[in-house]
Amino acid sequence: MSGNNTFIREIKTRHLIMIAFGGAMGTGLFVGSGGSIHQAGALGTLIAYCVASVIVYSVMLSLGELSSAFPNTGSFGDYAHRFISPSAGYVIFWMYWLNWVATVAVEYTAIALLISAWFPDVNLYVWVALCAIAIFLLNIFTVKLFAEGEFIVSFIKVFAVLIFLLLGFISIIYNLYLYGFNMTFANFYSANNDQWFPNGFSAVFMTILAVNFAFTGTEVIGVAVGETKDPRNAMPKAIKATLIRIIIFFIGSVFIIATFVPMNDARITESPFVTTLQIIKLPFVENGLPYIPDIMRFILIAALFSTANSGLYASARMIWGLAQKKMYPKIFATINKRGIPVYALLMTMGFSLLPFFFELVIYIALQINPDFSAYINNKNIDNMMESLITVSGFTMMIVWTSISYCQYAFRKQYLASGGKLDDLAYKTPFTPYIQIIGIFGCVISMIGVYFDESQRIAIWGTIIYIVICYIIYFATKNKFKN
């Protein structure tokens, strides 16, 4: 183990940009968008993605200023500690950790579901185990290996989405030629007795949180900047290069999916990208594109693997941040000679597998039940993924709210102390309006999901988790000072 407990700055600007892409393009987009369409309909989902885009845009602008001024691996927890209170910082550390632990668990499941289409006779949890082992091995070596791996896989997924957008828009134009406007865009207004919003407009609000989950991961660059070369210059470049591209990719992809996949055919356990490629018609290709669904499935597996990889990386740094601020046992602040917080990584890895451990217990207990196969592959998988997405999205909204507030507090303190805006490496425009938009959007997202009765248990569970975090903080705040 290294003696100075410092990270090695081996992440470059190109890595930082692709880490932002890689963190964001995961289950929320590639799989979860199907569940959003099923709940809110085509138009409702598109509106939800537009609203979420405004929210993530405003939060990332705030993050750009904070992370350029304080390029700390502790990131969001460190900002809350500085500009709200030590107790708030403690809770934000744990909230962001919980977000990624839940997200990584979702990625394991999504990858397993995609692979099971090729190997239907193999139990899903075999693929979960193999995926978890591979991700752990990538994270246990140098951060440079992690960054290069993320760069390559993220480039593949970005290229794949570009191809998807190209094929999708060609097919839309071809359908307009063959069938006209009304039939081409029938999903937007003809579902469920010609209603614009089949499940009511309230379903749009209930969907926004799940859609925000799709954008989760963009903020990972705020963590990675602590291990980045020349963070003062790298972070502004990454923010500017990332935001517009992600929004275009997300809204463009969802528009194409909503155009071709009927509301009742969209499910949370199936990738709407694969379904879309099986449906679309292209000129001069009568029988569809050969092997495209399988190729896309492979790319989706790589994309989700990338997000899980980023998630394990970010959540382990949160545990390190707690220990580094002497709010957690100091052993978790230990960094080895390769710049890896090994004990924080091991702890996070273990917790990311807890949902599957409980499922395994159920599996063993119900071996004598002949209906168990349907139980484990359908209803339980759906419910577990929806609950994990809700928990992850809800916790992320709290973290994003803290980012917006902390940027406002930092700017106010900075100017009061005589600082000049021109000296900042990155300046959040339209302060404080951008922060108001970010906070208001996050709050609306959290309120909206409460109206979905099936997800209230996940919300209440998260609230109880926050209360427990505060109780533990005040009970242990002096325990780890020495």
TrEMBL record:
It is a multi-pass membrane protein. It is found in: Membrane. GO terms for biological process: amino acid transport; transmembrane transport. Keywords: Membrane, Transmembrane, Transmembrane helix, Transport. Pfam families: AA_permease (PF00324). The keyword Transport applies. The chain crosses the membrane at residues 16-34, 46-70, 91-118, 124-146, 158-180, 200-222, 243-263, 295-320, 340-368, 388-410, 430-451, 457-476. Residues 15-477 form the Amino acid permease/ SLC12A domain. It comes from the Bacteria. This is Amino acid permease. It comes from Helicobacter didelphidarum. The lineage of its organism: Bacteria, Pseudomonadati, Campylobacterota, Epsilonproteobacteria, Campylobacterales.
